[in-house]
Amino acid sequence: MHNIMQTVALLEVSLSCAVLIILLLQKLSLKPWPSSVKVVLVLILANLFFWPLGLNLPLAGYVRGVTGDFSIVTLLLLWGSLFDSTKPIPNGVKIAIGLIAIIFYPLALGLGMTDPYALGYASNVFLVAVILVAIVCAVANWSRGVWLIAIAIIAWSAHWHESSNLWDYLLDPFLALWAIGSLLGALYARRKAKARSGYLFRPG
């Protein structure tokens, strides 16, 4: 069972590295790539990351040693962005992730008397709270959020990763950094556009 989990984790990291490389290359390209080309490139790169290729560990093993396992939410958002980049994540969702991370990580690291990370160990209260968040996503007409949370809960129930804590299936530092960085980038772009608009329409 442990070997199966290790293999699954390496596959996830391999696919994630491949998808991230394709996304970066796509940004440098002047034309969008067909989905079929992306799939082929992802499979090729994922193979390069997954097999040892003469090393003690596959490249994915070294990456995992630095990053750890990604949350299910991060994996689904990252993989989905390769084929569904036309539907951006709502800013409200990014704000919620950023605020949760800002509160969660300091407390989980011992700043204060409360440890929210402990709630992730089979706490019915926390599970109900997560389900309520999914309901809010449904009411807000963000069906992707409902699916993200549902799949994360299913993966946690099936012990898909080595961790038995629900938090590790919902949130990780990379998701938090992405949300906060994306918001800061959007704010900077808006200020830049506003300043440019003011300059263009300045009297005289």
* Contiguous helical run count: 9
Radius of gyration: 20 Å
Q: What is the makeup of the main sheet?
A: none
Elements, N to C (H/E): HHHHHHHHH
The dominant shape is globular
Poorly predicted spans? none
Break the fold down into its secondary structure elements and pairings.
Layout: H1 2-28, H2 35-50, H3 59-67, H4 72-81, H5 91-108, H6 124-139, H7 143-157, H8 167-170, H9 173-200
Helix pairs in contact: 1-2, 1-3, 1-4, 4-7, 5-9, 6-7
Q: Could you please describe the fold and organization of this structure?
A:
- By secondary structure, the protein is an all-alpha fold.
- 70% of the residues lie in helices and 0% in strands.
- It contains nine helices and no strands.
- It has helices at 2-28, 35-50, 59-67, 72-81, 91-108, 124-139, 143-157, 167-170, 173-200.
Key words describing this protein structure:
204 residues, mainly alpha, 9 helices, 70% helix, globular
In short:
With about 200 residues, the protein is mainly alpha-helical.
